[in-house]
Please model this.
Amino acid sequence: MMIASRILLVISCFFVSVLAQNHTGTLFNFAPGLGACGFTNTSTQIVGSVSSSFFNSFPGATDNPNKNPICKKSLFITSGGKNITAAIVDFFVADAPENVGLSPTAFKTFAPLSDGIVPNVTWSVV
Ligand SMILES: *[C@@H]1O[C@H](CO)[C@@H](O)[C@H](O)[C@H]1NC(C)=O
Ligand SMILES: *[C@@H]1O[C@H](CO)[C@@H](O)[C@H](O)[C@H]1NC(C)=O
Ligand SMILES: *[C@@H]1O[C@H](CO)[C@@H](O)[C@H](O)[C@H]1NC(C)=O
Ligand SMILES: *[C@@H]1O[C@H](CO)[C@@H](O)[C@H](O)[C@H]1NC(C)=O
Model:
């Protein structure tokens, strides 16, 4: 009983901390299409992607990426006093688990597309 409730407490704290936590990473722009969540999105929609490791370790993730609870969540990204909230629709495979991607329309909130990246953006899952 004691052990079971301690495990539950640890699991629920983990869940809360994953959702509330701020991350810092490099923002890049990506071309949406048929993504890991099973949606087909376009470059003019406000959509985002996270790393495969973040996606696959999100609480509730299973072998079926379409059913990942993160697909019902959004990325809240802030940088230089600006912010955007973009639906999470995909993951990317990279060795930088804290980076995030935004569709071109959403990326332009922070920088011209020709910049390619925006370093050190703050992001969380909301
Ligand atoms: C996360 O970052 C946002 C935006 O910079 C800030 O408003 C918020 O207080 C931070 N939250 C935590 C838990 O640090
Ligand atoms: C992404 O595409 C799906 C259809 O596959 C659509 O329902 C959803 O609204 C799109 N997301 C955004 C933010 O436009
Ligand atoms: C996000 O940006 C909007 C528009 O500039 C601003 O009103 C809002 O306070 C910002 N939110 C946060 C949490 O920074
Ligand atoms: C990004 O943050 C790191 C660690 O805080 C810092 O060393 C680096 O200079 C920052 N880069 C930019 C471009 O702000």
